[in-house]
């Protein structure tokens, strides 16, 4: 009997969903340790916000290309779990190699390699997850995966905070320790996830495959693209908190507070991913996604218009966590609903590529605008695109265009 429909367990919480969730938790634990200390590590090299934005942007851009090619190629494979295993392994090794860096460009190369692995695995993991559950439980399955991913993002910063003192701020040792959860994540995909028998799609060109995707999905991608062009990496929020609090609190205390705020951000992310997943199976997904995009706009306008205090920063990080939970859960479950299961690899790869291109543009531009024109100008750019993305998403009506 297929474990997705076994009467002895919930239809959607099966071995594959649990294995993917655990892998997401452990992998995010691994790279969030590195991500949390990355701004402080770069600061020891005298690096400005431009370099942080460039590292995030280039890595996301390369990852987006890998996601598109992985989604296109793996839809043609009868078995594709091995692609996800390879991606998790590359991410673990690339993240650990941060410890070998002595200059900012070294970090750029390591991050790009890690995110290349992340790009290879992403559409395959999502297709495996969608294939393990029924259509009416997509929201809960993807919400569970996002929740587990974000539990790793909660444990990661907390672990980084403890390890910094334990290893006496010796960054190579700290980055090497990220291998432990990273390799465990690879093992979860290899040994827990069961791959369903599938029929590969016929070989056609990448362009023709994209054109075969439903019109409703392409309209959805347009909205995602505009939103993503403003959706900067939230390591910039850590930098914002550290810089704004440093004059009053001192650099060391401000860095600790920034890590604490990022942990709060991830707690909100984890909690609302679960809530968003449940709501996605009951209400129109595009309206819920538009709400998440609108919360992102409120967060950005708060940075632009409200004086930055510790309480303002708390509100900013809470809103950031909530909107990312809604965004990632709803984008994935809406994508799965709009496209036939046979083409899920291509659909998830295309969605991830659009997000990756947006991440490249947003992180690079926000970092550059911050350095050249000031912090508020940079986040005003994001706020305007968040508003446009929310409006375009609200106008969608995907349930009528492609009913379940």
What does this structure look like?
The structure is a single chain. 59% of the residues are buried. The chain starts with 14 loop residues before the first helix and ends with a helix. The protein is 79% helix and 0% strand. The chain has helices spanning 15-43, 49-74, 81-96, 104-131, 138-166, 171-177, 179-192, 206-211, 215-228, 235-249, 251-280, 285-305, 310-338, 344-373, 375-395, 398-401. Helix 1 (15-43) packs antiparallel against helix 7, helix 9 (215-228) packs antiparallel against helix 15 and helix 12 packs antiparallel against helix 13 (310-338). With 404 residues, it is mainly alpha-helical. The protein is built from 16 helices and no strands. The radius of gyration is 20 Å and the shape is globular. It has a single domain, classed as Up-down Bundle (Growth Hormone, Chain: A), CATH 1.20.1250.20.
Question: What's the topology here?
Answer:
Layout: H1 15-43, H2 49-74, H3 81-96, H4 104-131, H5 138-166, H6 171-177, H7 179-192, H8 206-211, H9 215-228, H10 235-249, H11 251-280, H12 285-305, H13 310-338, H14 344-373, H15 375-395, H16 398-401
List keywords for this structure.
404 residues, mainly alpha, globular, single chain, 16 helices, disordered C terminus, Growth Hormone, Chain: A, disordered N terminus
